[in-house]
TrEMBL record:
It comes from Candidatus Zambryskibacteria bacterium RIFCSPLOWO2_01_FULL_35_19. It holds the Pfam family DNA_processg_A. Residues 6-216 form the Smf/DprA SLOG domain. This is DNA protecting protein DprA. Signal peptide: none annotated. Belongs to the DprA/Smf family. One of its GO terms (biological process) is DNA-mediated transformation. InterPro entries: DprA (IPR003488), DrpA_SLOG (IPR057666).
Amino acid sequence: MPYKINTLKKADWPPLLKEINQLPNKLFYVGKVADWSRKLLCVVGARKNTNYGREAVETFIESLRGYPITIVSGLALGIDSIAHRAALKNNLPTIAVPGSGLSLEVLHPQSHTHLATEIIEKGGMMMNEFEPEFKATQWSFPQRNRIMAGMSHATLVIEAEQKSGTLITARLATEYNRDVLALPGSIFNTTSQGPHMLIRLGATPIRDSNDILEALHLESHSASSDSASRDEEKYFDCSEKEMLIIKLLIEPLERDEILRQINTKHQIPIGEIQTFLSLLELKGLIKESLGEIRLT
């Protein structure tokens, strides 16, 4: 089904893209303008991927489900299309940046017109700087790579041979001061040569989705739930009134300040609050030092 190709107003450009050298003169787009407050993760890799590369992409992106992350890739054969499809499957927004114009008649590769349409139908976006009817050339792919690297907070390289367009994206990401992440692979596979070289040059090796979340400065849900679970265990025998004090002590406070706040907010007598403070100290949950009471 044909779709409408629009020009993206400069005010709606990805904020990080505005920081790069060689800014595009204009940007065309199809679909819904992305929410640029989300973290943009560019996922790139070999056109002739291995099963290992496919499984890694699908596993990583499935684990990122529910986080404020948008997957950016180039709509190419191999890892790019796997990344887009994994994002769609896991309800993560995805942005395709093809190396051709956005018109379905010239879209490259033609085998991905259905994928492009699905991205648009599911609330995603296609964008680049090429005129809508522009046919892909050898130079248009490296040129669009700077858009992907420039707009994204981090670039994840899954598989790449030592001389490949994927490494151009990684080099540009480094030049733009973005994080470069790389999947380690088998030393016997040529598609591992690129990621291994990047790791030697300082890229972050990615073992699981937590490494990606850390690079994007996002807290893992499991870390939050583990922390909550530990807190539940630690304070399981505290009374409701004792928990009022625990919750107040997110930062150390003087005794008089604790008494004042609990008394004012909850109308608990000062003597009773003093008793709870003593009980919490006996349980080893708080301690007083240098005139302040803090959690242990």
